[in-house]
Automatic annotation (TrEMBL):
Residues 208-336 form the CMP/dCMP-type deaminase domain. It comes from the Eukaryota. InterPro entries: APOBEC/CMP_deaminase_Zn-bd, CMP_dCMP_dom, dCMP_deaminase-rel, Deoxycytidylate_deaminase_dom. Its EC number is 3.5.4.12. Belongs to the cytidine and deoxycytidylate deaminase family. The keyword Hydrolase applies. Keywords: Hydrolase, Nucleotide biosynthesis. This is dCMP deaminase. One of its GO terms (biological process) is nucleotide biosynthetic process. One of its GO terms (molecular function) is zinc ion binding. Signal peptide: none annotated.
Length: 353
């Protein structure tokens, strides 16, 4: 349960016209009750005025609503007309004021929509308690939603141009969103899509220690030079990192992916000819960094369950506990390791930042 004394999350919704951002905001608000506040950054009235003014100007310039006969020059003129009209009806100053108000302390979750501007995103991403959700829907559904909401009757191709003008650069924002909600069916389907993503939407403001260190172990594994499976390890004492390690060839030898290890480069099957492998394992590398005596009573975070060789080394160091993310398919060490060391598998993927 969200504490009344903690800063609430700021959840931004982005998506193209008619994708269902308002519906998603209302679903989140209804589910969270009084702990949630919905804030519309761009007023619906601005959109209505923009549409009315745009259609009036098209009529004055005798521009047909059916774009099938338009040439390139006419399409460019229409796009310029729509952009000029857009700039008259959407005022960044009022949006900025709403955003800055939302950045003061507030124990309630705040749902901001729609996020459409680069400035908005840059400002919000400065806060650790902000994350972005993309609402996606097929174009026909978006077209139908838009027509119904604004009581319009315009051709699909005109809607697409209006969508591009209003949703300028929105695709870039949507790619940055760590959570996507699909709006492909009816209200029931949208609810199901929301419930599936609930844990990702209402994540803690910051990761717990286990998520934090496992995330860092995954960052460490990016330094692996092994041709086969990359592995990363972080060794911790009193929630402070004392060593890191990744798998690969020893210092001074060619990297594995530079043919530094013949076994790995031949894609030898798992568990076969291990004595011919010239790569350190991540666990070995981390323990070598601090030494076996200093490893006593420490905690190890590894992206892969240790093999038998690493298990023997770990037992010799008297490491107190091991957290791992992925099972090692043929690890004969699992039953032995559980006898002497506290072992726990964790999934850090639910923490979305």
């Amino acid at each position: 349960m969200h504490s009344n004394y903690n800063q609430g999350l700021i959840i931004g919704l982005c998506g193209r016209l008619g994708s269902g951002k308002e519906e998603v905001a209302q679903i989140i608000s209804k589910y969270q009750g009084t702990e949630c506040q919905v804030i519309s950054i761009t007023e619906t009235m601005n959109m209505r005025e923009f549409l009315g003014d745009s259609l009036k100007k098209m009529e004055e310039k005798q521009m047909d609503l059916d774009l099938s006969s338009y040439n390139t020059k006419q399409l460019e003129e229409l796009e310029k007309l729509l952009k000029d009209t857009r700039d008259q009806h959407f005022h960044p100053h009022s949006t900025k004021q709403k955003l800055e108000c939302s950045l003061t302390y507030n124990p309630r979750h705040q749902i901001l929509y729609p996020i459409t501007d680069k400035y908005e995103l840059e400002l919000l991403y400065q806060r650790n308690y902000f994350h972005l959700i993309a609402v996606e829907a097929p174009i026909i559904k978006r077209y139908e939603n838009f027509m119904k909401k604004y009581q319009l009757n315009i051709p699909l191709d005109l809607f697409c141009i209006i969508d591009d003008v209003i949703s300028d650069n929105i695709s870039e924002f949507m790619h940055k969103a760590k959570v996507q909600i699909g709006n492909v069916g009816d209200q029931k389907d949208l609810l199901i899509s929301f419930y599936k993503k609930y844990q990702d939407i209402f994540r803690p403001i910051r990761p717990n220690w286990n998520q934090y260190f496992m995330h860092l172990a995954n960052v460490v594994k990016q330094r692996s030079n092994c041709m086969k499976r990359a592995v990363g390890v972080v060794i911790v004492k009193d929630n402070r990192i004392v060593a890191t390690g990744y798998n690969g060839t020893p210092y001074g030898k060619q990297n594995c992916w530079e043919k530094g290890c013949d076994r790995c480069n031949q894609n030898t099957k798992q568990g076969v000819d291990l004595e011919k492998c010239f790569c350190f394992h991540a666990e070995e590398s981390a323990i070598l960094e601090i030494g076996t005596k200093k490893s006593k009573n420490m905690v190890m975070y590894t992206t892969l369950f240790p093999c038998l060789q690493c298990t023997k080394i770990i037992l010799s160091t008297k490491i107190d506990k091991i957290y791992y993310e992925e099972d090692y398919d043929k690890s004969a060490a699992k039953s032995e390791l559980h006898k002497y060391v506290k072992v726990e598998q964790i999934d850090s993927s639910h923490y979305v930042h």
